[in-house]
Amino acid sequence: MGFVELPSFSGSRPKKRRRGHVHGRYCGKGLKGEKSRKGRKHIPILEGGQMPVVRRLPKRGFSNKKFEVRYEIVNLGAIEKKFSEWEEVNSKTLLEKGLLRKKLPVKILGSGTFSKSLVFRVDKVSATAAEKIKKASGSVALPENSQSK
User: Nearest to residue 52, comparing CAs of 62, 60, 44?
Assistant: First the structure.
């Protein structure tokens, strides 16, 4: 049995021949050091004698994250489409109409057109939203511990 000549695949190119003096002996990795060793990857924290950024930055301090109050935001334009005249708007009715995703405190923003008279009982209302609601002869009832901002 002799050797069979196989045709080359379309788009294939012959392998480039490397020069012996470039990839010989140390395989192009140099003599010593972290990058020449087998199985060892370069660690980005190490900065070669300089004090690393991770160690230069302070590790303590104050964060207000755990005291932050997150609000579910609803615009007046979306409320106008879903509610009819003189209905009450609160977190329960907003959830039923599909305007809320999570059970968080609700804040109403004044984006969009608004002309219906509705009764709002939510946690917060922006100043522009409160102005639009009053123009449409609606009412806003906020809890006593919150202020409208």
Answer: 44
Q: Tens of pLDDT along the chain (149 residues)?
A: 667 888 888 888 877 766 655 677 777 777 887 777 777 677 788 888 999 998 998 888 888 888 999 999 999 999 999 999 999 999 999 999 999 998 899 999 999 999 999 999 999 999 999 999 999 999 999 887 765 55
In angstroms, the first-to-last Cα distance of the chain is 90
40 in any annotated domain: no
* Cross-sheet strand order for the sheet of 72-75: 72-75, 106-109, 124-125
Do residues 99 and 91 make contact, with C-beta atoms less than 8 angstroms apart? no
Domain range for 111: 66-140
| Residue 2: φ, ψ to 5° | -105, 175
d(CA 79, CA 99): 8
Classify residue 59: in a domain, yes or no: no
Residue 28 in any domain: the answer is no
Amino acid at 14: P
CATH number at residue 83: 3.100.10.10
